[in-house]
Amino acid sequence: MAGGNTVVLDDPVGASLRGHHAHLARGRGGAVSYLPGVATFSAVPVEAGAAEWADLARLLGPGGFADMFDCPSIPPSHWEPVFVLGGRQMVWAGAGSRVPSQAEARTGVVELGPGDVPEMLDLAGRTEPGPFWARTLELGTYLGIRDNGTLVAMAGERLRPPGWTEISAVCTAPEARGRGHAARLVSALAARIVSRDERPFLHVADTNTAAIALYERLGFETRKPVTFRGFRTPVSS
Q: Measured between alpha carbons, how far is residue 204 from residues 42, 50, 51, 192, 227 in Å?
């Protein structure tokens, strides 16, 4: 079976920032975060104490946004809560699930590059698949589908803990839904990931039942529930 130890999926942000995405990371003491414009995700040790949260506050600056993903630790009470969202982490089921060959999956699919970023930002803004910024494309491969030259669907690679690649930013313009675009893009990305002996995984909000059903049809299964949280760092100490 492609892929590595599932333990790294308990801290996919930290494992990515300290590994494959180290070139996109900034750190201070026990805290680490993505560079501005790439992603807002940050990480601290699982059993973070006051020192590590102080490191993150200094790293992000006063009033900075700390997107803690599924961090089990909670910051000090003087940090401002921004959001809480329940979801699930799903992993490709492995040998029992058929991932199409790259030749099968790439039909009608194009690889997106820096010149496509304005359209990608517009599509993400209209469909809200999750955080997507001007430099998010640098996290990995992003694929799209065009209709008469217009980008109507996309998906890409985000977190990269050892042995794994997360599929993210799966979205389709409202006028192009119901045509199987999301399934085609997720399948194409899964084929690429498996071809380099890694295993696909993804995250989805519990409320997005249509997406969960799609991912299950494509061979993903729920590994664990997750709780996404965001905070603002203290404006003053």
A: 19, 30, 31, 21, 10
The two three-digit tokens of residue 144, written as one number: 């799209």
Distances (CA, A) of 184 to 33, 140, 144, 160, 168: 32, 18, 10, 21, 14
Give the model confidence (pLDDT) of 180-225 as tens digits. 999 999 999 999 999 999 999 999 999 999 999 999 999 999 999 9
Angle, alpha carbons 23-127-116 (nearest 5°)? 50
pTM above 0.90, yes or no: yes
User: pLDDT tens across 162-186, in order?
Assistant: 999 999 999 999 999 999 999 999 9
How far apart are alpha carbons 2 and 196 in whole angstroms? 8
Amino acid at 23: H
